[in-house]
Specification:
Layout: H1 8-18, H2 23-34, H3 40-50, H4 71-80, H5 86-97, H6 103-112, H7 143-146, E1 163-165, E2 172-177, E3 181-184, H8 185-194, E4 201-205, E5 218-222, H9 223-231, H10 242-262
Antiparallel strand pairs: 1-2, 2-3, 4-5
Length: 264
């Protein structure tokens, strides 16, 4: 298989984006901009081949990384992670800052920025647990004033049916259940009309607009067809050419299969 050729425009995009975003965000934005399906490992190889670096030290925050937490919150997590487990840290964080962060979100924050707890996970002789002798413990500062009472919702609570745009991929998400269950809107719309999306299939947006989830704008393709179209550089073809592009991919796949069968 011939090696994928990155254009000058692609390389400039990667240099500019990776200087501000994480690898995951860079991959998502790159694929969206050029209609590709490159994995993070493939982009890491490209960075190595073309000498592209983020220019940041491990764990360093940039403006682009401060979307989920403030600098004050980041510094607090970094300090408290040496004392608390992820689960304890999540509870303490939400109490202190009146948020609804999940354990996975806090864990991702510590991993993405190379935070080390310095703990082995084992208790040593004579060591006490973090909450030993703290029955009825109350966090200090203004935590009591900001702590949520049972039945209360935070000011940024979104009711079921609310929609938001995913910052990473640009898809529309719909809240389907409490407390924090969100699903892709285009998948929900497809299921309303056609049932579950079959395994090894993807949904295409015919006009390439990921926020247009009208059923008339959605097209079902296999992951194989999707990959072939992207390799052909036709992932963002015009709406009136989508069917033709899909047909070309199927012809190419059939030809490849026949060629393989001839060598069996």
């Amino acid at each position: 298989m011939p090696r994928f050729k990155y254009t000058t425009e692609m390389l400039n995009f990667l240099r500019d984006t990776y200087a501000k975003k994480s690898l995951a965000d860079t991959a998502a934005l790159f694929n969206r901009a050029f209609g590709l399906d490159k994995s993070e490992s493939q982009l890491k190889a490209a960075f190595s081949n073309y000498g592209i670096t983020c220019g940041r030290k491990k764990g360093e925050l940039t403006k682009g990384n401060l979307r989920s937490v403030t600098q004050t919150q980041f510094d607090w997590v970094k300090k408290q992670y040496t004392l608390l487990t992820i689960e304890q840290l999540t509870v303490a964080f939400n109490e202190k800052f009146a948020t609804e962060k999940t354990v996975n979100q806090i864990r991702a924050l510590t991993r993405n920025h190379g935070m080390k707890s310095g703990r082995t996970g084992r208790f040593h002789a004579g060591q006490k647990s973090w909450n030993a002798g703290m029955k009825g413990y109350q966090a200090g500062g203004n935590s009591a004033a900001t702590r949520f009472k049972k039945g209360n919702n935070p000011h940024n609570h979104k009711p079921v049916g609310s929609e938001r745009i995913d910052n990473k991929d640009g898809f529309v998400l719909v809240k389907t259940a409490e407390p924090r269950t969100w699903r892709l809107k285009h998948i929900i719309e497809w299921e309303k009309h056609h049932g579950s999306v079959p395994a090894d299939h993807k949904i295409w947006f015919i006009d390439n607009d990921r926020t247009n989830c009208d059923i008339s704008n959605l097209m079902l393709v296999t992951t194989g067809e999707h990959a072939v179209v992207n390799k052909m550089g036709l992932g963002r073809a015009n709406p009136d050419a989508k069917e033709t592009v899909l047909l070309l991919a199927r012809i190419k796949m059939a030809a490849t299969k026949r060629k393989g069968d001839c060598h069996v």
